[in-house]
Amino acid sequence: MKSDVLFIHPGDQKKTYQDLSKEYTAVATPAWTLLLASYIRNKGYAAAIYDVNISGWDEGTAKELMSRYNPELIVIMVYGHNPSASTQTMPSAGSIARELKKCNKDVPISMGGTHPSALPEMTLREEDIDFVIQGEGAYTVEGLINYIKGRGDIETVKGLWFRNNNSVLFTLPAPIFANLDEVFEDYAWDLLPDINRYRAHNMHCFQDFEKSKSHDFSDVRSPYVAMNTSLGCPYACHYCCINSVFGKAGIRYWSLERVASWIDTLVNKYKVKNIRFDDELFILSPGRVERFCDLMIERKYNLNIWVYGRVDTITGSMLKKLKKAGVNWICLGIESGNEKVRNAVNKNIKRDVKNAVEMIQAHDIYVLGNYMFGLPEDDMNTMEDTLLLAMDLNCEFANFYSVMAYPGSKLYEWAVRHEGYLPESWKGFSQLGYETQPLPTRYVSAKEVLRFRDHAFFTYYTSSEYLDMIAEKFGEKVKNHIAKMINVKMKRRIVEDTQ
Fold it and tell me: What is the rounded distance in angstroms from the CA atom of residue 115 to the CA atom of residue 91?
């Protein structure tokens, strides 16, 4: 099966999430890889996708892929479930590249994604690869395969980093596409190994657990798709790295007609019900959100959708339609319970958080609250404020993050100037991994931040107020599932080293 371009989606669920990977975490479709593969195929090239998170990787995989696809170019896309997950995927991506080179050093390997776009020269020098793709990648991959086939000069391939003897060179930035419909027309769903092997995050399907007949609820969590309806974010929070791919803050949309056609295919051809929109802010433009809802309501699909919004972008007028359209979960970036701490990283919330959460829940939509411990102005008291806010809001689910200085973010620019602020390897950027090493604050050490984060997680999910609410809303299966989840032991190197 000859392929001009073999796209590889790297990952290591076990190392990234430890024992939580067995039952609790999502296995998401690789959205960016699917878009690029579709683009290249539409240009007349043969494309293939190998998803390590589904098909695995062992000592024989590299040789098997070279034999099966005989690729002229390999593209390793370093993306994750969200922008911050790219850096934690670098150990897997680097290992894959090394094994492929050992197998056949003559096949050129390129690496793209959030982390390589943020640190292109470092990535090219550190990894056993030939090229780094900086930016969105479509024009760059097209130009690169043309160059490899002898149809152009390497200097004309925009968005490309490459070596010339001992020098590292960059061509020119690739253009940012104004019309997404014209460039990324579709997702190459058919190139996935089996869409039924992808599963939603556990909480995404809490409302369906009572109907499940599976011990891990996989029968209601699959099939599952993560996809985008927009690219970028107009905000510039200091801890976020999303715009390192796009070069600046901003947001661009696919037409809603195009998005609706994708969902038609997912429902009618692939029987997909569970969808997560990975847009950094799906709920931003009220008119666009309501028009999307109208398109879904008229189709009468029984969807289970998860979207992201800000506390101050939610309006009461849209919530009724969102629920009717199948939006059951809204994720809010609450981040901190202390206004000074939030404002110091340019996260300005101009609305009462509790009011917004209660308004969403009043429309029978569940809230996933995101909280962060270890922002630069955090101390033990402000982190306690954040935990108390989380307990008071009592959202149906909560993510507790320790702050990382991700490459491409303002925090990375700050942290790189301080010795010991960054992990020694990219493995340390994994939120739930053994090697996790968060950013210290001006007042609290990295070890204390991580300890507090794990304490907050345990405190929240063992709270009687939370568990009683969960049982009332979702039933005993979900309550027992939470109790089982909280007993999964997370090993932490920087905590264990000092005990």
Answer: 12
In Å, the largest CA–CA distance within the chain is: 66
User: Which structural domain range is residue 462 located in?
Assistant: 194-496
Residue-wise pLDDT tens digits, 350-406: 889 999 999 999 999 999 999 999 999 999 999 999 999 999 999 999 999 999 999
Both tokens of residue 225? 């798709």
Q: Residue 288 is inside which H or E element, if any?
A: helix 286-299
Would you say 461 and 453 are in contact if contact means Cβ atoms under 8 Å apart?
no
Alpha carbon distance 460, 389 (integer Å)? 11
Q: Which has the closest alpha carbon to 406: 450, 451, 437?
A: 437
* Separation between Cα atoms, residue 429 and residue 151, nearest integer Å: 40
DSSP 226-277: EE-SEEEES---TT--GGGTTSSSEEEE--HHHHHHHHHHHHHTT---EEEE
Strands (E), 178-241: 224-227, 230-233
Question: Could you tell me if 342 and 349 are in contact, meaning their C-beta atoms sit under 8 angstroms apart?
Answer: yes
What is the 8-class DSSP label of residue 214? S
| CA 297 – CA 230 distance, rounded (Å) | 20
Mean pLDDT, the chain, rounded, equals 94
| Distance of alpha carbon 34 from alpha carbon 125, whole angstroms | 27
> DSSP secondary-structure letter at 151?
S
Q: Is 427:433 a contact under the CB 8 Å cutoff?
A: yes
Structure confidence by residue, pLDDT tens digits, 51-99: 999 999 999 999 999 999 999 999 999 987 777 789 999 999 999 999 9
CATH assignment of the domain containing 320: 3.80.30.20
- Edge-to-edge strand ranges of the sheet holding 47-51: 47-51, 5-9, 73-78, 109-113, 131-133, 160-164, 167-170
Query: What are the backbone dihedrals phi and psi of residue 330, each rounded to the nearest 5 degrees, phi first?
Result: -120, 125
- pLDDT reported for residue 216: 86
Q: Is residue 176 part of a domain?
A: no
Flag whether pLDDT at 8 surpasses 90.
yes
User: What total number of domains does the chain contain?
Assistant: 2
